[in-house]
Amino acid sequence: MSTTDPRVRTRKAPAERAAEILDAATAIAREQGLGALTLRAVADRAGVASGLIAHYQPSMDDLVARVYSDLVEEEIREVRALAAREASPAARFARVLETLLDGSREDLTVVWVESWAISRRNPALAAAVRRQMSVWQLLLVEIADEGVADGSFATAETSAVAWQIMGMVDGLNAQSLVREADPATAIAQMSRAAETLLGARPGSLALAR
């Protein structure tokens, strides 16, 4: 009698195999975080030998950075699209805050939290984190500048305010991983704080239900 070895490899085009490996790594990161990305874990998820992973991804540090960047870029596209549906800068800013704090993106919160810690020993990831944080900050600056232009906001420091709001959102999301908290409360608190920082009318960042 003979049995079929599930690890017998089928020859595939290099681009196809590389895409499969990236997909496997991305799935692991979504489910378990960046810290779970190891050569063995990716090989097991992709159903191939570890040596094949090493062939297509000589550096696990680079693979971690690529997975992180892909996930965050997708998130930014989604949030930007949601914000763009709103009619005013205040509503767009409010939509961004609500989307980031409503508790629906815990998988990405884990990715963010772990990325800051892992970056200390992964230069490729550190560069990717700095780049994506700047992209997020720019999104907030763009909306804030629009609000200043139409009179919704009154601050001359949109860049600094954007960084501060980002830090507060990141902190609340990181706490939410271990602290039982009502997302609606966090959104309301963050909205009031953002109104103060932006020089916005009280209540203007509360989305209508």
Give an account of the 3D structure.
This protein has nine helices and no strands. The chain is elongated. Helix 7 (123-150) packs across helix 8 and helix 8 packs antiparallel against helix 9 (183-198). The protein folds into two domains: 10-58, Arc Repressor Mutant, subunit A; 62-198, Tetracycline Repressor, domain 2, CATH 1.10.357.10. By secondary structure, it is mainly alpha-helical. The chain has helices spanning 14-32, 39-46, 50-56, 60-84, 89-101, 106-118, 123-150, 158-176, 183-198. The termini are far apart. The longest helix has 28 residues, at 123-150.
CATH architecture assignment of the largest domain = Orthogonal Bundle
Give the helices and strands as they follow along the chain.
Answer: HHHHHHHHH
Query: Class of the largest domain, according to the CATH hierarchy?
Result: Mainly Alpha
CATH homology group of the largest domain: Tetracycline Repressor, domain 2
- Contiguous runs where pLDDT drops below 50 for at least 5 residues: 1-8
Mean pLDDT rating: 91
Structural class: mainly alpha
Q: What general outline do the C-alpha atoms trace?
A: elongated
Tally of helical runs:
9
Query: Terminal Cα separation, in Å?
Result: 66 Å
Radius of gyration: 21 Å
